[in-house]
Specification:
Elements (H helix, E strand, L loop, with lengths): L26 H10 L6 H17 L7 E4 L4 H12 L4 E7 L5 H14 L2 E6 L2 H14 L6 H18 L3 E3 L4 H4 L13 H11 L12 H10 L4 E3 L9 H12 L12 H15 L4 H10 L5 H9 L5 H15 L3 H9 L12 H10 L2 H12 L1
Parallel strand pairs: 1-2, 1-4, 2-3, 4-5
Helix pairs in contact: 3-10, 5-8, 11-14
The structure holds zinc ion.
């Protein structure tokens, strides 16, 4: 199959919804052009933004912590933790251990925490239950297996924020290095019904301890502001992945993993093997394209990077043996799943309708009315 490549980035028609203009420029590049200017700041503006943010966080609570930060050990969350240190605030750092941490990520988290002297709470997942859920998602043949981890992290942060009465969540989400991910490659992380439905069909255990929140609750939390305010400090500065890595290396002796989200052995295997082989999806394309648009690398750099194999053969063998053994799949069982036709998340139960309804009726006036009621 021939793929058409954007003339400015390295996104191609493996994104089923991509559109090109008459110059062969993709919709992601066109959309990003007008958006990216909102995330450019002078040094002074950056300083002011962080000072304002620090003030907001400090005055927002009389409790022990100003904010909660979910730290995976990856670039973005590590850099948010670094900014918290710079802003001289007291965050509670939460690490969610789903059983797949690489040794490097564990070491990176230790280095950052010890230098910043922040409180760290590590939540270790119930592994037999999580293993069964991951096995179910593989058997279901859906594209976004990471829904499980991302959902659990969101639900956990919400629970802890409530428990410690922390008003703010500092998130590592950022536009400059994360924009342009094809929507068809992801599923909504809040879809608890999808998780339950897939587990019911393919799992061998009931869900008991896995942290969950359903879509309705997520939307109510958003609407009433009871889930804490999510702040995105990386969108308040000139965020660049390469500069962030350099700072983390210099200040903390932090070590890079070689790919976005490769701090988890599972995520690496999923992104660099399962997605390309089973779904024809190479997440390096949108990741590198975002860096091109952010002026961090050239298109030629990205094309050169894409020529490299996703995995070195020996490394693939080692990771595959490790992942299959840990998930309890035989090689033939796994190969068969890899060859089966992919399924849509919508082939299973989903609370997408709640989300659609929310999007349809979410209007500013409704928010204003609710805010008015809340003040009464
Ligand atoms: Zn493009």
């Amino acid at each position: 199959m021939d793929f058409q490549l954007c003339s400015q980035c390295v996104t191609d028609t493996s994104d089923p919804n991509i559109q090109f203009d008459s110059n062969g420029v993709c919709n992601h590049c066109i959309e990003a052009k007008s958006e990216l200017v909102k995330y450019r700041f002078t040094e002074e503006q950056e300083k002011n933004n962080l000072a304002k943010l620090a003030h907001q966080l400090r005055t927002g609570t009389s409790g022990k912590y100003h904010a909660v930060i979910g730290l995976s050990g990856g670039v973005d969350s590590s850099y948010v933790t670094h900014l918290a240190k710079q802003m001289d605030i007291r965050p509670l750092i939460v690490h969610f251990d789903n059983g797949w941490n690489s040794d490097k990520s564990v070491a990176n988290i230790k280095k950052i925490i010890s230098k910043c002297s922040f409180d760290l709470e590590t939540l270790v997942i119930n592994w037999p239950e999580f293993k069964d859920l991951q096995r179910s998602f593989f058997k279901a043949g859906v594209i976004d297996i990471e829904v499980l981890t991302d959902h659990a992290i969101m639900a956990t942060l919400f629970k802890l924020r409530k428990q410690y009465r922390i008003p703010y969540v500092l998130s590592g989400a950022n536009f400059t290095t994360e924009h342009g991910m094809p929507l068809a490659w992801l599923w909504r992380k809040q879809d608890a019904t999808n998780i339950k439905s897939i587990q019911q069909k393919f799992g061998t255990k009931p869900i008991k301890e896995f942290p969950m929140l359903n879509s309705f609750r997520f939307q109510m939390i958003k609407l009433f502001g009871t889930g804490g305010n999510y702040l995105e400090p990386l969108n308040q500065i000139n965020y660049s992945k390469s500069k962030a890595i350099k700072t983390l290396q210099d200040e903390y002796g932090w070590e890079y993993y070689g790919g976005k989200h490769y701090e988890s052995v599972f995520t690496k295997f999923y992104q660099a093997y399962v997605l390309p082989i089973k779904f024809g999806v190479d997440k390096r394309r949108p990741h590198l394209s975002a860096l091109i648009r952010n002026g961090e690398i050239t298109r030629d750099d990205a094309l050169y990077e894409l020529k490299k194999p996703n995995y070195e053969p020996l490394e693939l063998q080692l990771d595959m043996d490790f992942v299959l053994k840990k998930l309890g799949f035989s090689k033939s069982e796994f190969e068969q799943m890899m060859q089966e036709k992919p399924h849509s998340h919508l082939d299973y139960g989903s609370d997408q309708w709640i989300f659609d309804l929310w999007m349809k009726y979410r209007t500013d006036s409704l928010r204003k009315i609710l805010a008015f009621i809340r003040r009464k």
